[in-house]
C-alpha cells in the first residue's frame, strides 16, 4: 500500500491538536491511498467496488474482499447484479449503462442514448447552442444528487438539467473520453472512470486523477462513493481511495513543517529524501541534493516569514538553525566567502568523489564543454570530520542572499545575531569582488555556474546569462549594502552600472527563447534575486528599471499558477504601487534624455497584474503527497500544445490558457516548467520537502496577499 494512510492519520491528528490555533477558511484536501496485493488483495484486476453501510467491498474473479483496518480479507457472498431492470439489450444492442430519470428508464449503448417509456423507445440527441450529438458508446448513464441526468460517450460528457443540456469536450475542460464507469457523489459531484484514470466533475470543473499519485492503476473498472464523499476505485492493480478532508492552510503548514523536520532535516540541511522502496514513505532515508544550501535557505526564509507573521517561537528556532547551517557552508570551505553546496560526514556511505572522478567529468564535457574537471569534488574539511561539495553555482548564491536579507530584517534581533549575518554576507560579497565577480574554487578557477564577470557576459559562453547574472550581482550587492551598512558595496554596484551597464542588462532578467537557453528553475533565481534588488533599492530611476524587469520576468510565467513566483511578484509590485502613490517618482527629472520613460513605467506597472486568487488556489491544490511521480499529460483533450517554432512538442496548457493544476502535473517542487506535459520527478523513488508549500504560504501571509 502506498503509505498515504500515514499522511492521513498524521493530518487528522494535527487537525485535532492544532484546531485551537488554526486560522483561515477550511477547504477540501484530497488524500489518496492505494491498496494492492501487499494489503491482501489478489494480484491483478479488481473488477468492481461497492459499499455496504459505507464499508467497501472489492470484487475480483468472483471473489469478494472486505477492508479491515488497512488489510483486505476474503469474504463470502455474491457479485452484485449488473442490471436491476433485467434488461441486457435494446434493439439487439448490448446495454452498457442505465438509470431511472423522471420515472423513465434511460439506457446507454454503443449506438446511442435512449429513453424508454413503456414499450416506446426514443433516441435522445443531446444538443445546445454549441453541439448536437447523436452519441456513440454511451458507457455511463447516472443521476446525480441534484437530480441531473449525466452521460459519458466518445463525444464527451453532459448532463440534462431540466430541459437544458450542458455538454463538455476538451474545449470545456474534459481531459479524456475513453470511459468505463461512473458514480454520483454528494453535492452534485460526479466521478467518471476511464482507461487512463478518473475524472471528478464539480460545478462544471474537471479534476483529473491519474498516475500513481492518485490510483494504483490507471484502468478504472468501477467506482463507489460514500456519503462523506470518499471515492473508491476498482482498478487493474488494486483498489484506490480518494478521501476529501477539511483542512485550513495553517493546518496544512503544520503538517508540512512536521514532514520536513521528520524526513528532510539532515544535520540542519534541508533536501529531498530517498525512498529505498518505490512509493513507500516509511522506507525513506537521508540523501543529498545538488543545492542543499538553496533549499535550506528557502526553508529558513519560510520560517522567517512565519516568525514575522505569527511570532511563533518554533519558527524563530528553525530560522536560526537554517541560518547557522547556511553559514556553516561558508565557514567550512577553502577560503573566506566561498559557500559549499553540501556538507556530509566523512563516513558518508556513498563514494561521492569516485562518482565525480576524472572519467565522469570528461564524459560530461561532451554535452557541456564548460563543465569543470575538478577533483576532489568533495574536499575534506580542515578538521577531517566532514566533506564539502565544491563547484558552487548561482543557485546557491541566490538562495543565500535571499535568505540573509529576510533573516536579518525579520528574525535577527540582538547585536550578536545581526553581526553574524553581517559577517557572512560581507564574506561572500567580498569573495565575489576579490575574484572579479566570480566564485573561485579550490583549484583557483571559476565554478561552472558562478561567473558574474563582464568578460563572461561578453563571451559566446555567457552572453545568454548576461541579463540574469547581471541582475543577480546587483541584487547581491544591494543585500550586502543593506545588511552591513557599508557603502562600498553601493560604490561597487555603481561601477558595474556605469562601466558595464549591468542595470541595462538586468532589464531582460531571464532567457525565454530559444528553448535550449530556457531553464525553468532560473525563474527561482530571477525572482528571489529581484526580491532583494527591489526591496533594498532607494534610487527612483533604478527602481523604475527594476520594476520593468520584474514585469518582464513575470509575464513569461504568469500563466503557470505558481504561488511562490506570484507571491514574490505581487509583494514587489505592491511596494511599487505604494511608492507611486507617495509620488516617489515625480518631480525628480528622471531620465531627462527621455522624459516619457518614467511616467510610462509608472502607468504601465502601477499595479500588480496577477490574479491574487491563483496564489490561494495553488496553495490549496499542492498535494500532501510530495513523492515524485512520472506523469504524461500529452494524451489530454483539454490541452493546447505550444505552437511556437522550436519549442518542445510536449509542452502545452489547458484550453483556458493556464498551466495544468499542480496536483495534475509530474512535479511538486514548483521550480519546474508548469507547461511541461511529460515529466518525471523521481518516479516514486524520492519524497520532496514541504518547503514548496511553506515558503509561498508564509510569504503570502506576511505580505497580506492572502487573508488568514
Describe this structure in words.
This protein is an alpha+beta fold and 708 residues long. It has a domain at 89-246: YVTN repeat-like/Quinoprotein amine dehydrogenase (Methylamine Dehydrogenase, Chain H, 7 Propeller), CATH 2.130.10.10. Helix content is 33%, strand content 22%. The chain has 18 helices and 34 strands. The strands form eleven sheets. It has a five-stranded antiparallel β-sheet with strand order 6-7-8-9-10, with no helix packed on it. Helix 3 (292-310) runs parallel beside helix 18 (691-702), helix 7 (394-410) packs parallel to helix 10 (466-484) and helix 15 packs antiparallel against helix 17 (613-621). The model is unreliable at 12-22 (pLDDT under 50).
Which helices and strands occur, and which strands form pairs?
Elements (H helix, E strand, L loop, with lengths): L3 H15 L8 E9 L12 E5 L2 E6 L2 E6 L2 E5 L13 E2 L2 E9 L2 E6 L2 E6 L2 E5 L15 E4 L5 E4 L4 E5 L2 E5 L10 E6 L5 E5 L2 E6 L2 E5 L10 E6 L5 E5 L2 E10 L1 H15 L1 E2 L2 E2 L2 E3 L8 E3 L5 H19 L2 H19 L11 E3 L6 H4 L2 H7 L21 E3 L5 H17 L4 H20 L3 E3 L5 E6 L2 H4 L8 H19 L3 H13 L1 H4 L16 H14 L4 H16 L7 H19 L15 H8 L8 H9 L8 E3 L6 E3 L10 E3 L23 E3 L5 E2 L3 H12 L6
Antiparallel strand pairs: 1-21, 2-3, 3-4, 4-5, 6-7, 7-8, 8-9, 9-10, 11-12, 12-13, 13-14, 15-16, 16-17, 17-18, 19-20, 20-21, 22-23, 24-25, 24-34, 26-27, 28-29, 30-33, 31-32
Helix pairs in contact: 1-2, 2-18, 3-4, 3-7, 3-18, 4-7, 4-8, 7-8, 7-10, 7-13, 8-10, 10-11, 10-13, 13-14, 13-15, 14-15, 15-17, 15-18
Amino acid at each position: 500500500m502506498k503509505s498515504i494512510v500515514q499522511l492521513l492519520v498524521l493530518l487528522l491528528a494535527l487537525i485535532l491538536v492544532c484546531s485551537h490555533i488554526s486560522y483561515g477558511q477550511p477547504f477540501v484536501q484530497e488524500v489518496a491511498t492505494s491498496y494492492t496485493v501487499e494489503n491482501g488483495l489478489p494480484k491483478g484486476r479488481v473488477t468492481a467496488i461497492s459499499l455496504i453501510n459505507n464499508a467497501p467491498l472489492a470484487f475480483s474473479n468472483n471473489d469478494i474482499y472486505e477492508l479491515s483496518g488497512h488489510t483486505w480479507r476474503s469474504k463470502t457472498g455474491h457479485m452484485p447484479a449488473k442490471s436491476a431492470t433485467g434488461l441486457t439489450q435494446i434493439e439487439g444492442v448490448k446495454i452498457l449503462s442505465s438509470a431511472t430519470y423522471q420515472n423513465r428508464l434511460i439506457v446507454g449503448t454503443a449506438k446511442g442514448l435512449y429513453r424508454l417509456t413503456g414499450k416506446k423507445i426514443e433516441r435522445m440527441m443531446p444538443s445546445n447552442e454549441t453541439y448536437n450529438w447523436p452519441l456513440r458508446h454511451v458507457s455511463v448513464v447516472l443521476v446525480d444528487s441534484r437530480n441531473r441526468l449525466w452521460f459519458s460517450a466518445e463525444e464527451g460528457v453532459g448532463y440534462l438539467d431540466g430541459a437544458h443540456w450542458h455538454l463538455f469536450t476538451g474545449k470545456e475542460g474534459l481531459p479524456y473520453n475513453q470511459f468505463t464507469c461512473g458514480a454520483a457523489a454528494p453535492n452534485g459531484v460526479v466521478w467518471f472512470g476511464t482507461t487512463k484514470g478518473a475524472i471528478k466533475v464539480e460545478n462544471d470543473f474537471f479534476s483529473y486523477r491519474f498516475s500513481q499519485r492518485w490510483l494504483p492503476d490507471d484502468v478504472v473498472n468501477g467506482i463507489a462513493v460514500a456519503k462523506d464523499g470518499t471515492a473508491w476505485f476498482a482498478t487493474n492493480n488494486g483498489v484506490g481511495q480518494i478521501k476529501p478532508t477539511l483542512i485550513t492552510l495553517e493546518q496544512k503548514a503544520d503538517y508540512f513543517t512536521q514532514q520536513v523536520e521528520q524526513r528532510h532535516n539532515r544535520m540542519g540541511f534541508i533536501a529531498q529524501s530517498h525512498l529505498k522502496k518505490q512509493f513507500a514513505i516509511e522506507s525513506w532515508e537521508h540523501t543529498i541534493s545538488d543545492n542543499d544550501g538553496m533549499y535550506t535557505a528557502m526553508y529558513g526564509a519560510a520560517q522567517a516569514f512565519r516568525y514575522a507573521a505569527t511570532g511563533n517561537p518554533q519558527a524563530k528556532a528553525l530560522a536560526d538553525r537554517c541560518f547557522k547551517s547556511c553559514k556553516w557552508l561558508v565557514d567550512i570551505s577553502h577560503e573566506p566567502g566561498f559557500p559549499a553546496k553540501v556538507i556530509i560526514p566523512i563516513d558518508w556511505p556513498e563514494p561521492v568523489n569516485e562518482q565525480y572522478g576524472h572519467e565522469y567529468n570528461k564524459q560530461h564535457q561532451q554535452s557541456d564543454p564548460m563543465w569543470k574537471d575538478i577533483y576532489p569534488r568533495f574536499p575534506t574539511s580542515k578538521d577531517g570530520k566532514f566533506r564539502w561539495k565544491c563547484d558552487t553555482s548561482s543557485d546557491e548564491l541566490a538562495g543565500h542572499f535571499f535568505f540573509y536579507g529576510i533573516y536579518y530584517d525579520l528574525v535577527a534581533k540582538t547585536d550578536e545575531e545581526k553581526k553574524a549575518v553581517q559577517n557572512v554576507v560581507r564574506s561572500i560579497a567580498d569573495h565575489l569582488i576579490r575574484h572579479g565577480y566570480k566564485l573561485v574554487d579550490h583549484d583557483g578557477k571559476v565554478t561552472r555556474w558562478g561567473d558574474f564577470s563582464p568578460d563572461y557576459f561578453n563571451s559566446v559562453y555567457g552572453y545568454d546569462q548576461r541579463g540574469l547574472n547581471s541582475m543577480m550581482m546587483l541584487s547581491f550587492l544591494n543585500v550586502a549594502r543593506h545588511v552591513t551598512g557599508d557603502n562600498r558595496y553601493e560604490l561597487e554596484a555603481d561601477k558595474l552600472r556605469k562601466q558595464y551597464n549591468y542595470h541595462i542588462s538586468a532589464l531582460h532578467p531571464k532567457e525565454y527563447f530559444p528553448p535550449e537557453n530556457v531553464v525553468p528553475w532560473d525563474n527561482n533565481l530571477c525572482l528571489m534575486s529581484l526580491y532583494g534588488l527591489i526591496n533594498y533599492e532607494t534610487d527612483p530611476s533604478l527602481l523604475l528599471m527594476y520594476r520593468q524587469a520584474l514585469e518582464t520576468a513575470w509575464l513569461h510565467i504568469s500563466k503557470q499558477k505558481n504561488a511562490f513566483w506570484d507571491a514574490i511578484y505581487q509583494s514587489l509590485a505592491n511596494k511599487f504601487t505604494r511608492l507611486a502613490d507617495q509620488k516617489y517618482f515625480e518631480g525628480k527629472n528622471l531620465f531627462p534624455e527621455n522624459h516619457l520613460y518614467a511616467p510610462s513605467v509608472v502607468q504601465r506597472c502601477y499595479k500588480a497584474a496577477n490574479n491574487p486568487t491563483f496564489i490561494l488556489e495553488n496553495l490549496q491544490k499542492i498535494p500532501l503527497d510530495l513523492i515524485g511521480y512520472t506523469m504524461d499529460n500529452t494524451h489530454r483533450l483539454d490541452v493546447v500544445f505550444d505552437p511556437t517554432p522550436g519549442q518542445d512538442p510536449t509542452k502545452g496548457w489547458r484550453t483556458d490558457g493556464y498551466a495544468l493544476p499542480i496536483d495534475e502535473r509530474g512535479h511538486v517542487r514548483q521550480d519546474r516548467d508548469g507547461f511541461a506535459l511529460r515529466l518525471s520527478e523521481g518516479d516514486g523513488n524520492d519524497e520532496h520537502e514541504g518547503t514548496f508549500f511553506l515558503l509561498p504560504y508564509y510569504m503570502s501571509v506576511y505580505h497580506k496577499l492572502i487573508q488568514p
